[in-house]
Amino acid sequence: MTARNTPHGPANNNPGAVRGAAVTARIGLVLGICLTLCFLTGLISHLLQHPQPWFLTLWPTRPVWLYRLTQGVHVAAGIAAIPLVVIKLWLVWPKLFQRPLLGGLIRQLERGSILVLVGSTLFELSTGLLNIAQWYVFPFFFTTAHYAVAWLVAGAVLVHVGVKLVVIRDALGQPSAEVPAGTPPTGPTRRAVLLGAWSAVALATVATVGQSVPWLRSVSVLAPRSGRGPQGVPVNRTAHAAGVLAAATSADYRLTVVSATTTRQFSVAELQALPQVTRSLPIACVEGWSAEAQWTGVLLADLVASVGGQPHSDVRMISLEPPGPYSRTVLPARHARDSATLIALELNGTELDLDHGYPCRLIAPSRPGVLQTKWLSRIEVLES
Amino acid sequence: MTTVRTVAILAGLAVGCYGAVLLAGFPTETLVRMGIWAAAGVAIQDLVFAPASTALVHVVGATVPRPWRSAVAVAAMLSVTVALLAIPVYNRSGSGFGNTTVLDRDYHAGFWLLQAGIGGTLIIVLAARSRCGTELFGRTLGRFGILSSAAAGRRRQADSATYNDRMARASAAQQPARAGKGLPSTRRGRQTRAAIIEAAATLMYDNGVHATSLEEVLTASGAGKSQLYHYFDDKADLVQAVIARQLDRVLASQPSLNHIDSFAGIEAWVTEILDLHSAPGGPFACPLGTVAAELKNDDAFRPSLAAAFRQWEGRLARGLVTMQERGELVRRADPAALATMTIAALQGGMLLARVHGDVSPLRDALAAAVAHLRMYVTAQ
Which of A117, A374, B14, B355 has its CA 20 to 30 A from that of A39? Predict the structure, then answer.
């Protein structure tokens, strides 16, 4: 009749312990949702920047803020995952020393998958956080590394969920705080750990999300962007950094528009003389920040038509910028013919700032900012 | 379930393999650098951060009073989160290329403002949880609680109400339960604490421990949330007090257990039990047996439950020892084992009597137990 611990009941299954599965599974579930959001939105951004024909036929131009939403979610979910991953790893840390340390093949595989999971997740969150602050302290190229390792995270999460599904289901069935939570002699209660985790997620989000949610700008004191910039819009790459100062301000500047049959050149004055339209469109950076602005300029569809181009043609945008990964992009036909796609000459009512792409730039709905080519020098209508 | 798990694991392996294929296209030097970065992350987490956090938990546990620990823990989690997010921006290490629109805030001010906000909020919360704040809050909240306690009262089942009333009357003179943070020093405090335990014991007896929320306890007891947390760390702490309270109820309902010195005394005890369970609404479920049935698999409560049953058995064992000393029972009789056997028969009898709605299983089980005890009667 004396109380004895069952020999087969490991401490982590004790529903009373704060480090038990009930708390870990709840935090893990939310972390899993965050990582899933990161993966899916990241995949969208990757597919937009490394165009696959099947994806471009699916990606819509409306709502115009769609990419702003997906990429804002990408960065916000990644930031929310940071406190969750830290707390979850702290909760399961004692398992690192659980016997047997190595065990048989199955155990080694499980431990190996956890190592991949932890290593790749920390890799993704750390590089992502550093990248949005443009602190390239890691000795490798961000985008390709961040993309490849994302697949490792996704695979390791799936394996982990598969391995732990029974534990997860049972643990989520256990009440979290409203059960008899046996308080360990010194540690915080389950209630406190969960409250801390959700509060940390809320604080992390509020402290940074203002760079994509304008009305939170003033409270997001840790956001890498305040949202301020020339003409009220931040800049990702300056004219100086792009090396286009001389070419962009030259009196000889001409925008060349080319189709299979016709080539036309426009000076800035000639572009200004064409019918001007104004559109309200967000510019949304892959780094998560975004801003809504009023853009005024020539409809791209008009320019394409002026050289006899067809509305079903893709259009290539070429910058004054020396050749590099972002100096030229291809705009899919659906975006090229859209009534919201402009070759912008003005931003928020004044002539485009040099850092925003003077003399003229592309601004299209529902596209990553990095593909909204600035300092345009040449527009090519591609025959389909 | 097995299918879902298999699909998830296989899909995970496939997805991971695609990542490995992508990585296979990287130059070896880049892979080494990435590997070092990932390994450093794991090492910092497992060898520095997690042990430091664990040590911090122990330091807090050793130095911070219990009622404050949860608030301190939450504040620590927030503070660490802010520090992690501040790493890339604090010194604006990434600003360059003459771009003034990135890292364009005063991050030193922002970081310390957030830390000060967390610290300030912690101080306010701790002050609210201190004695002065608790009583002020508790009195205000208590008024609302009293207003709505009637609703919870209706949830009680009639039979258990009868039982609880009988138990309450019988145990009115008993000491309040012993778990929790120690007895309050004021009479009003003791009353509040006893009311909370009483309400919790009743609700948990009627509906179960898991099904009883602290909100219901507050409503039924008329106490305020801050009062509850003043007297109890959490629900577990309250449940410990309820276990002690149910033991008190059980013992108070069978006073003759304390006066056993002969078989006549044992028969008197048995009669007392059968009388109780023959009352309207009976046979009743045992208050201690009910909570034990629900929490029997929980290591956090098994020691308390075992100790409670030990006390119950101990009263009977003491009587059996007296009988042995008087020469009524043989020397080879083991009073502790016999007491345990008798309480086991009583527990099983109460359960079946309650289930069948008939007191005879209980009567028969007790009769069998007493018959077994008589096997140890000293031969005259």
Answer: A374
